[in-house]
Design brief:
- This protein has 21 helices and 2 strands.
- By secondary structure, it is mainly alpha-helical.
- It has one domain.
- It has a two-stranded antiparallel ribbon with strand order 1-2.
- Helix 6 packs antiparallel against helix 7 and helix 20 crosses helix 21.
- The protein starts with 19 loop residues before the first helix and ends in a 23-residue tail after the last helix.
Length: about 475
């Protein structure tokens, strides 16, 4: 009898094979986010920058050890911190700093070994703090990209998930702001993306519910304005599990724990549900002339120096495709609710007395909403690819413009535009000057700025308006 053919050799597949693509994507994001070798921020990110070190040193959520270093010559602390109940505390939410603690920990160990005493500001003018903060912000932003890539694949956009997430991450303030320092936007975008991917399909188990409840609670803790995105997640989970109250506890317990803790902190140290933000808002109203709703809405969307549609023009194209993609988006009810949540979010941003977000690059205040906008981009691009060459070309053009603008912000911001020839805070009409805008000023001045600095540590000297303020 003829011999039976040998069975083909089949090598066992690694159980970790599905991690290769996300791991490579994370590494690529981190390298590019770190390519400018500097931190971009201002005094508003100061508390989040130093607070993880205070926690690791055993000080708890207080900045007391740096109180003298933070004061200016008149013994005045920067606006981002306040004295309350015998401690120096952040006026901004402390949750972003808490998230950064495990990211700081290995870096602090290395710096303690190589450079003892590095955390004394007089030793290094905050250079080491800037280095650790920038690395942590880049890690968080890179995780946002990985989660969004997985989310796009989960909602039926696998064929374009990679190019869309690259376009959205590098063509938005997730690059020029969130990945550069510990603003609340990177953590908020991460928890929003996690909340969506865990519950968007309406199938739950205890781990997913616990994770989603934690992510949704943290979303509010990172940025109170993001309650507008948290509410749809809470309603969606409650609606799907309305007949399974025991299951709902796995979502509500971590969610409520975080929210109640946030409220208790805000009331105890600031006497307000808004926490230190209420004090900042009061100062802003006293120092900066207010603008009406229409001016704020136009400014936050189309101002030459702050407009969302100017700095991230692919968003305008993506929104214009909603009439054609709404039915497909509606196959995932939570996503359609998230899209609708953009309306009250825009209303909130327009009514903010500082709708431009202070001293920062571009449409930073919209960063938290970018994950939702990337989802809209994915559905719109997919529709254009199959149905409309003109819209597809518009997408390609606006994505290219957006990425170019973010490159300018990442490598050339800051410029003298915010304060010269006069401060935009007292001359808000400058936000509409098309002959002298921040993009142009950053490009012009940045191209003539010396690129080579003396050392790696020197490259992480503060960039942007610095403390004390």
């Amino acid at each position: 009898m003829p011999e039976a053919p040998e069975a083909p050799l089949v090598l066992p597949l690694s159980p970790y094979r599905h991690l290769w693509a996300p791991s490579f994507l994370f590494l690529a994001f981190f390298v590019i986010f770190s390519a400018n070798a500097r931190k971009i921020g201002n005094a508003d990110t100061l508390p989040a920058m130093v607070l993880p070190v205070a926690i690791l040193r055993g000080d708890g959520p207080f900045l007391d050890r740096w109180s003298d270093d933070l004061q200016n010559e008149s013994a005045v602390l920067p606006n981002s911190v306040s004295r309350s109940r015998g401690h120096v505390v952040s006026r901004f939410p402390i949750a972003p700093a808490l998230l950064a603690v495990p990211l700081y920990w290995p870096q602090v160990l290395v710096l303690d070994l190589l450079k003892p005493g590095w955390d004394r500001p007089s030793v290094n003018t905050w250079a080491f703090f800037n280095l650790v903060e920038k690395n942590s912000a880049a890690v968080i932003a890179s995780l946002v990209g990985v989660v969004l890539y997985s989310l796009l694949r989960k909602i039926g956009l696998s064929n374009i998930a990679l190019p869309i997430v690259l376009a959205g991450m590098f063509g938005s303030s997730l690059w020029s702001s969130a990945s550069q320092s510990l603003w609340p936007h990177g953590p908020a975008a991460l928890t929003l993306s996690l909340g969506l991917i865990l519950v968007v399909d309406g199938t739950f188990n205890r781990r997913k519910l616990f994770g989603a409840g934690t992510a949704t609670g943290l979303l509010i803790a990172f940025n109170l304005a993001d309650v507008l995105f948290a509410v749809p997640i809470v309603i969606w989970v409650t609606q799907v599990l309305k007949s399974q109250r025991a299951q709902l506890l796995w979502f509500y317990v971590p969610f409520a724990t975080i929210v109640v803790t946030l409220i208790a902190w805000n009331l105890y140290y600031f006497g307000s549900l808004l926490g230190g933000l209420s004090e900042l808002d009061e100062r802003s109203l006293n120092l900066i002339p207010g603008s009406g709703f229409l001016e704020g809405l136009a400014g936050t969307l189309i101002s030459p120096s702050r407009g969302l549609f100017i700095f991230t023009p692919w968003i305008a194209v993506a929104l214009s495709t909603l009439p054609f993609t709404w039915r497909r988006i509606g196959e995932h009810p939570l996503l359609s609710w998230m899209v609708l949540a953009l309306v009250p979010y825009a209303y909130f941003r327009a009514n903010d007395p500082i709708w431009w977000g202070g001293q920062s690059f571009g449409s930073r205040v919209w960063t938290d909403a970018v994950p939702v906008l990337i989802v809209i981009l994915g559905f719109g691009f997919d529709w254009a690819w199959n149905r409309s060459i003109p819209v597809l070309l518009a997408f390609l053009a606006t994505i290219s413009i957006a990425v170019s603008i973010q490159v300018i912000g990442t490598f050339y911001y800051p410029s003298t535009w915010y304060d010269a020839p006069n401060s935009v805070e007292s001359h808000t009409g400058r936000f509409w000057d098309i002959s002298d805008h921040e993009i142009g000023r950053c490009l012009e001045e940045g191209m003539h700025r010396p690129k080579a600095l003396s050392s790696l540590w020197g490259r992480f000297a503060p960039v942007g308006p610095q403390l004390p303020q």
